[in-house]
Amino acid sequence: MEIASVWRGTSRASRFDALATTNLKVDVAIVGGGITGCTLALQLVEQGKSVCLLEAHEIGYGSTGGSTGNLYGTVSGGLAAIQNKWGEDVLRGVVQARTTAVNDIERRANVLGVDFGWRRCPQYLYPLSADARETISKEHEASLLAGLPARMEDELPVQWAQGPALVIENQAQIHPLRYVRALALQAQRQGCLVHERSAVIEVDHGKRQVCTANGTVTADHIVLATHSPIGFHSTQAGMVVHREYGIAVCLGKGSCPPGIFWGRGDKSLSVRSLEVDGNQYVLIIGEDQKMGQHDAKACLGELEAKARETFDIDQVAYRWSAQNFQSPDKLPYIGQDISGNYIATGFGTDGLVYGTLAGSLIADEILGRTNSASHLFRASRVAPIKAAKGIAEEVGTMVKSLVKDYLTERQEVEVSKLQPGTGALVEIDGTSVAAYRDADGAIHAVSSVCTHLGCKVHWNSVETSWDCPCHGSRFAIDGSVLEGPAIKALDRKYAVEP
Ligand SMILES: Cc1cc2nc3c(=O)[nH]c(=O)nc-3n(C[C@H](O)[C@H](O)[C@H](O)COP(=O)(O)OP(=O)(O)OC[C@H]3O[C@@H](n4cnc5c(N)ncnc54)[C@H](O)[C@@H]3O)c2cc1C
Ligand code: FES
């Protein structure tokens, strides 16, 4: 089963050279070419800063290129939850900052002149079960309090969903991958050094340096726009990591009008239409799944079955999945952390907007400009970890205890029982090994111990990868890093006879 997002399938290949220069010196080094890194890079070069943007894979490779492309002032976890936790002033501040970020994307859309599917549309929150009605009614109240153009409607403009629904007018949608690649290209035109296939493998805080396999960049400011900060970071202790699955199906025009459709109930569902290069798709994104603690194939199968109940589907055109990181106190961490580096993380599933906002907030911090929203998302609010215990030890212990049952209950299988195209943890000479048998019967075996903080990895049957349940690192079958926070590959020290 091929796994690629509809965005990747409808975008041209991205072509920026890998970093090949040693000892580069710039004002700002940005690690990570998602919406956060690309937005920030463009803002900084526009203000005359020298900038180097380093991306491990290709621009938009991370969650930006696996998102749904919805832009909205509210948040998917609910504004009522922010109001309860932080009060009305913070609620209004967050929604105002998010609305400004959506407007910033619109302004960019007009300037860049690239077709990345910008459109304004309404957002609908509808119940999937009777008990979700109260939640939706509370969201209506919180949305009005936050200043959003919200109202309740009994009917929706589609046959496959019923009201009463919360409707918020004037939200928006984009093609997120074309958008970030246009940002990166524009930044490069204005002098930013943009390098793909340039994974940062070391960050030296003291020397203010980031290193790739081919070169080193020294900078006055280092920004870890890597979704979760790479390496060990105190924010990782309380962060919940989820993987979400999405499909895009070809359906006739009219089956889903422009709009952000969010179903809420025991499970949640997100639906939108997309018109790209003359083709019509409906995108359906399912429930959050705890990272490395679910059966990927089963989740995707369940989502397809749910979609078939709702729509008359001939063929699924695209299947994909992507990651989100949710902070424990419902707001992201954006800005300078206690080490002096800048981070932007904990966006939940709202990070196209939060990432855009993070680009502006961090640019303002670096340029010495005040931003009235920066206090809402301070990265330094995360409790500093006590000096007596190392960050690695503390973060590792806290998260391992969160997933303890899962980690201890897993059984290893015998290598001879491994079927072609499958992977599992196997025991070889008393050591747990992550083994994958390819279609020709050959075994690819790597260490099962995540190089970030030592949790055991889990087989992802859909993406053919080893995923870590603790902080979301993902590794290819040869052990190389697909997604951080790990920066070091899994050891490849096992030669196993098929
Ligand atoms: C299924 C799904 C749907 C979503 N839909 C929406 C939506 O509709 N609207 C919305 O607002 N949000 C949505 N989100 C959330 C949103 O996609 C993310 O929060 C956002 O894209 C994060 O952007 P980012 O730039 O911070 O991180 P990313 O897009 O993940 O970019 C980080 C980049 O850093 C790179 N990187 C990592 N490590 C290194 C390294 N060592 N060296 C160099 N580069 C490195 C990665 O390769 C990656 O490209 C969704 C999330 C999911 C999972
Ligand atoms: S131990 Fe942290 S990602 Fe694996």
Description:
Helices cover 26% and strands 27% of the residues. It has helices at 6-9, 35-46, 79-86, 88-112, 132-145, 176-189, 296-310, 351-367, 391-402, 404-409, and strands spanning 24-31, 51-54, 70-71, 119-127, 150-153, 165-173, 193-195, 202-204, 209-211, 216-224, 240-250, 260-264, 269-276, 279-285, 289-290, 316-326, 333-336, 342-345, 422-428, 431-437, 443-447, 458-460, 465-467, 474-475, 481-483. It has a domain at 406-483: Rieske Iron-sulfur Protein (3-layer Sandwich). The chain has 498 residues and is of the alpha+beta class. The strands form 4 sheets. Strands 3, 4, 5, 6, 11, 12, 13, 14, 15 and 16 form a 10-stranded mixed sheet that branches. Strands 1, 2, 7, 8, 9, 10, 17 and 18 form an 8-stranded mixed sheet that branches. Strand 20 and strand 21 form a beta hairpin. It contains 10 helices and 25 strands. Residues 31-37, 54-57, 61-64, 66-70, 199-200, 225-227, 230, 244, 246, 285, 322-324, 344, 347, 349-353, 355, 484, 487 line the site of flavin-adenine dinucleotide.
Short description, anyone?
The protein has 498 residues and is of the alpha+beta class. It contains 10 helices and 25 strands. It has a domain of 78 residues: Rieske Iron-sulfur Protein (3-layer Sandwich).
CATH topology of the domain at 406-483: Rieske Iron-sulfur Protein
Identify the CATH class of the domain at 406-483.
Mainly Beta
- Count of strand segments: 25
* CA gyration radius, whole angstroms: 22 Å
Percent of residues in helices = 25-40%
Low-confidence stretches: 405-409
Gross morphology is: globular
List each distinct ligand once: flavin-adenine dinucleotide, FE2/S2 (inorganic) cluster
Count of alpha/pi helices: 10
Strand content: 25-35%
User: So, CATH architecture of the domain at 406-483?
Assistant: 3-layer Sandwich
